[in-house]
Write a structure and sequence with these properties.
heterodimer; A: 372 residues; DNA Polymerase III, Chain A, domain 2; 3 domains; B: 417 residues; alpha+beta; Alpha-Beta Plaits; DNA polymerase, domain 1; Dna Ligase, domain 1; 5-stranded mixed sheet; 4-stranded antiparallel sheet; 15 helices
Chain lengths: 372, 417
C-alpha cells in the first residue's frame, strides 16, 4: 500500500478513529486503525467491538493495499504535522512497518496484520430513513445530559430513541434519565421511520455521533435494527450496538397534574442559581426555591462555608411554595432553554417538577426535588 | 543514664533493680525522658479479654476466631508458642494446637474494652491516632508540665492501669516518630516497653530487614528484592532520585525511613475511609436466595454503623470469595451518597446479579466508601422508583422502633433467609 493524503483530511479521519478505539484495551489490535486503500480513496476503520466507525477520504492511491497501525500514535503524528502538509503512508508488506512521510519528517510504525482486524458483522436493518443533521443534533444534545452513569442501571446508560404518539401525530422521540432528572425531546417523524424499533443508543455512540452533526444541512442516513443502529454521511459511517435492555416506562414519570406555574427568564435564572451555589462545596448542592407572588428567592445554606440568597422577579400566582433542587440539575435543565422563558410546573415540595420552554411541549424535562 | 521502674514508676539513675521495690522490670535509656511519640499495642487483645471474662481459660491456649471454617483472629501467647498465628485458617491452627479452646469473637465486648482504654489514653494526651481497637499512636509532646512527669512515666502508668483496672496487658514503643514507635512496640512483646532513641536509630535500623516497614507487604517486598534491597543498609546505598524513579512516591518514603525519618504527625481520629462488613459461610453456597439474605443482613449492618457515625457513602462495593479462594469485587458509584440499608442492599444486589458468577461462594462482603456527612445523603428521590421514599420512611421508622425496643424488635422477612 502506498497513498498520499492531505493532512487536514487525514487528521479528521484518524481523529475519529482514535476516539473510538478502546483505551484500556487488552486486545492489541483494538488499539489500531485499519487503513484500506483502493481506487481513489482510503478508508479508516476503528472499533471497540461495540462501535465501528469508517471514514472514507479522497486519497491519491499509488499502490492499493491495507494495513493496521496504532490509531493514537498515528493521530499524534498527524496532529503535530504542519497544516497543509502532504502525508504519504506506505508499507512494503514485508517489513511489518508503516512508513509515514511528510516533508522531511519520517516515521516507521509497527503494524498488525489486517486479517486480524475485527469487522463488525453486517446486519439487516428493519428501518432506513434520512434525517437532517440539525434535527438529530437537537434530539441528542438536549437529552444526553440526563444519561445515567450508574453501571448497575445499564439500561439507562444511553438515549432511548423511538417512535411515539404525541399531540398532532407520531414523532421521533429521544428520552434519557438517571432517575433524578429526565429529558424527553420530540422531532417530526422522518419519512420511512414509522416502523423503527425503539433502541437505547449508548453514551459513547452519542458522543461519536455528535461529530457527524455539525453541518445543519447535511442529511444523515439512519438505519435501525433491534440490535444495531447506523448513522451515515457520504464519508463517515458509524455503526453501533445498542444497549441490550428495556428502557423503563418513562411516561409514568412525567407529571401531568402539576398546576403551580412559574415563568422565568432562563438565562437570568441559571446565572442566579450558579451564583448562590458557589458557597457550597458539596457535590450535591441543594438550592432552595421560595416562591410567593411574582417573587422567587433562591438560597443555599452550607453550614461549613456560608450561605447565599438572591431574589428574582418572576411570574408566579399560586400559593406559597418552598422546594429544593440539586443546583447542578437546575443549571443543566435551565441551560437547555434557548429561545423563550423557562416554565416550571410544580405540585408539591416532594413531587417531580416539570420544566419546558414556553408552551413548547416538544422538549420537556422532569427533575426530582431534594429535601432542604 | 535515666531509668524508670515499670512496676512502681520510681525514677532513678540506672541500675539493674529498682532501688525502691527491687523489681527487675527496669527501663533505662539515655533519651528516656526526651522522647514523646509512642505506639501502644495490646497483647493478644481479643484473647486477653476472653481470659479476663473467663478465668478458667487463663492457663489454656485460647484462639479467638469464627467457626471451623473461619480464620484465627487472635491467638493467646500460649497458643502462639505452638505456632498459631492470626489470619491462619482455623483447621491448621487446630492441627498445631489441638488442645486449644476456640472462642467465637464477641465484638461488642472488645469495642467496650477498647473504649475504656481509649478513655485512659485521653487522660494523657488529646493527640491519639487509633489504628484499630487494640493499638494507637500517642503524641505526648509538651505534656511533661501538665502531668508533672515525662511521657515515659505516663506511658508506663497507662499500661499498669490497663493491667490492674481492665486486666489487659499492652506493649509500648517509645521513639521520636511514628515509624520507629511502631517498630519499637513490637520488639519486646508481650508486656514490653522499648525505646529507640535518636542517637541509636541508625545503628538499630542498619541490619533490620525492610519488611519491618509498615505497608511493605509481599508485593513491595518482591520488587525490593528484585532491586537487591533486603535490609536498611541496602536502602542507604540508594540515591534519593533513583529510589523515586524506581518506586515512585514509595521510593521517597523509603529514602527517609532508611534514615529513621518519618514526618507524619499523630493525627487524631484519622478520618474513616470506608465501612464494610463481611461474612464467611458455614458451608459454601451458590443459592441466590441464601446469598440475597446475606446481602441484606450485611447491608443492614453497614447501614447501622454508618448511621451511628452520621456517615454516608457514594461507592458501594460487593465482595465475593469463591470456593477456590479467588476474590471478586464489584463496585459502583451512586449519584448521591446514602446511608440507607435499602439503597445499599439494592445496589449490592444489582452488583451481584451483574457479576453473573455461579458460585459457590465461601464469603460475601458489602462495603460503603467515598464517605461524606449524612447531611448530604439521601436527599433526593428516584423518578423511576417512586416507592423508594416510602421505603426510606419505613426504614427510619424501623430504626426508631429498634432504638426503643432492641435490635430484634422488628425484622424484614428477607433477613431470615
Amino acid at each position: 500500500m502506498k497513498i498520499s493524503i492531505e493532512r487536514s483530511a487525514l487528521l479528521r479521519a484518524v481523529g475519529q478513529a482514535q476516539s473510538v478505539v478502546e483505551r484500556r484495551n487488552t486486545i492489541p489490535i483494538l488499539a489500531n486503525v485499519l487503513i484500506e486503500a483502493d481506487g481513489d480513496s482510503a478508508s479508516f476503520r476503528a472499533t471497540d467491538l461495540d462501535i465501528e466507525v469508517i471514514d472514507k477520504i479522497n486519497a491519491q492511491v499509488i499502490r492499493a493495499g491495507a494495513t493496521t497501525v496504532s490509531a493514537v500514535m498515528l493521530h499524534d503524528i498527524v496532529r503535530k504535522l504542519p497544516d497543509g502538509a502532504l502525508v504519504e503512508l506506505s508499507d512494503d508488506g514485508a517489513s511489518g512497518r508503516l512508513t509515514v512521510q511528510a516533508g522531511r519528517a519520517h516515521f516507521q510504525l509497527a503494524t498488525l496484520p489486517k486479517e486480524d482486524f475485527p469487522v463488525m458483522a453486517s446486519s439487516e436493518y428493519a428501518s432506513n430513513f434520512s434525517a437532517p443533521a440539525g434535527m438529530l443534533r437537537r434530539l441528542f444534545d438536549k437529552s444526553r445530559f440526563a444519561i445515567s452513569t450508574e453501571e448497575t442501571r445499564y439500561y439507562l446508560n444511553g438515549v432511548y430513541m423511538h417512535v411515539s404518539d404525541a399531540e398532532g401525530g407520531k414523532v421521533l422521540r429521544c428520552v434519557a434519565t438517571d432517575g433524578h432528572r429526565l429529558a424527553r425531546i420530540d422531532a417530526a417523524l422522518p419519512v420511512g421511520a414509522d416502523d423503527m424499533p425503539g433502541v437505547i443508543v449508548p453514551r459513547k455512540t452519542v458522543t461519536e455521533l455528535r461529530k457527524l452533526l455539525d453541518d445543519d444541512d447535511a442529511k444523515i442516513a439512519v438505519s435501525v435494527s433491534e440490535t444495531k443502529v447506523r448513522f451515515a454521511t457520504p464519508e463517515i459511517m458509524l455503526t453501533s450496538k445498542v444497549i441490550d435492555g428495556t428502557f423503563p416506562d418513562y411516561t409514568r414519570v412525567i407529571p401531568t397534574g402539576n398546576t403551580k406555574k412559574l415563568e422565568v427568564d432562563a438565562q437570568e435564572f441559571a446565572q442566579a442559581v450558579d451564583r448562590v451555589a458557589t458557597v457550597s462545596s458539596e457535590r450535591s448542592r441543594a438550592v432552595k426555591m421560595q416562591l410567593d407572588e411574582d417573587r422567587l428567592i433562591l438560597s443555599v445554606n452550607a453550614p461549613d462555608s456560608g450561605n447565599a440568597e438572591e431574589e428574582l422577579a418572576v411570574a408566579y400566582g399560586d400559593e406559597k411554595l418552598e422546594i429544593g433542587f440539586n443546583a447542578k440539575y437546575l443549571l443543566e435543565i435551565a441551560s437547555q432553554v434557548d429561545r423563550e422563558n423557562a416554565v416550571f410546573l410544580f405540585n408539591s415540595s416532594g413531587d417531580p417538577t416539570l420544566m419546558r420552554e414556553g408552551n413548547d411541549t416538544s422538549a420537556v424535562y422532569v427533575v426530582m426535588p431534594m429535601r432542604v | 543514664m535515666p531509668a524508670l521502674c515499670r512496676d512502681c514508676l520510681t525514677q532513678f539513675d540506672a541500675g539493674r533493680r529498682c532501688p525502691s521495690c527491687r523489681s527487675p522490670r527496669v527501663l533505662a535509656h539515655p533519651e528516656l525522658l526526651d522522647l514523646s511519640i509512642a505506639h501502644m499495642d495490646c497483647d493478644a487483645f481479643y484473647a486477653s479479654v476472653e481470659k479476663r471474662e473467663n478465668p478458667e481459660l487463663r492457663d489454656k491456649p485460647v484462639i479467638v476466631g469464627g467457626g471451623h471454617r473461619g480464620v484465627v483472629s487472635t491467638a493467646c501467647y500460649i497458643a502462639r508458642i505452638k505456632g498459631v498465628r492470626s489470619a491462619m485458617p482455623m483447621f491448621k491452627a487446630l492441627e498445631l494446637c489441638p488442645e486449644a479452646v476456640v472462642v467465637k469473637g464477641r465484638m461488642d465486648l472488645y469495642v467496650e474494652v477498647s473504649r475504656r482504654i481509649r478513655a485512659m489514653m485521653e487522660e494523657l494526651t488529646p493527640a491519639i491516632e487509633p489504628l484499630s481497637l487494640d493499638e494507637a499512636f500517642l503524641d505526648l509532646s509538651g505534656t511533661h508540665r501538665l502531668h508533672h512527669a515525662p511521657p515515659a512515666v505516663m506511658l508506663a502508668r497507662l499500661v499498669r492501669r490497663m493491667e490492674t483496672e481492665l486486666g489487659i496487658t499492652g506493649s509500648i514503643g517509645l521513639s521520636h516518630n511514628k515509624f520507629l514507635a511502631k517498630v519499637a512496640s513490637d520488639l519486646d512483646k508481650p508486656r514490653g516497653f522499648s525505646v529507640i532513641g535518636k542517637a541509636g536509630t541508625a545503628e538499630f535500623l542498619r541490619d533490620q530487614p525492610v519488611r519491618l516497614i509498615w505497608g511493605v507487604g509481599q508485593a513491595t517486598q518482591a520488587s525490593l528484592d528484585a532491586a537487591g534491597i533486603r535490609t536498611f543498609a541496602d536502602l542507604l546505598r540508594w540515591d534519593q532520585r533513583d529510589l523515586q524513579a524506581r518506586f515512585g512516591s514509595m521510593g521517597d518514603r523509603l529514602w527517609h525511613l532508611a534514615r529513621g525519618e518519618d514526618h507524619r504527625r499523630v493525627r487524631r481520629d484519622a478520618p474513616m475511609k470506608s465501612i464494610s462488613n463481611e461474612t464467611t459461610f458455614h458451608d459454601d453456597t451458590a443459592n441466590a436466595d441464601v446469598l440475597d439474605g446475606h446481602i441484606w443482613r450485611l447491608a443492614e449492618k453497614v447501614s447501622d454503623r454508618a448511621k451511628a457515625k452520621g456517615q454516608a457513602g457514594r461507592t458501594v462495593t460487593l465482595k465475593l470469595k469463591r470456593h477456590d479462594h479467588r476474590i471478586l469485587t464489584r463496585r459502583t458509584t451512586l449519584r448521591e451518597a446514602t446511608q440507607m440499608a435499602d439503597r445499599l442492599y439494592r445496589t449490592a444486589r444489582a452488583l451481584y446479579d451483574e457479576a453473573k458468577e455461579p458460585g459457590p461462594f465461601r464469603l460475601l462482603g458489602v462495603g460503603l466508601s467515598d464517605l461524606t456527612s449524612a447531611d448530604n445523603a439521601d436527599l433526593s428521590g428516584d423518578l423511576l422508583d417512586p416507592q423508594a421514599l416510602k421505603r426510606a420512611e419505613a426504614e427510619r421508622a424501623t430504626d426508631a422502633i429498634r432504638a426503643r425496643f432492641g435490635p430484634d424488635a422488628i425484622l424484614k422477612g428477607r433477613a431470615l433467609r
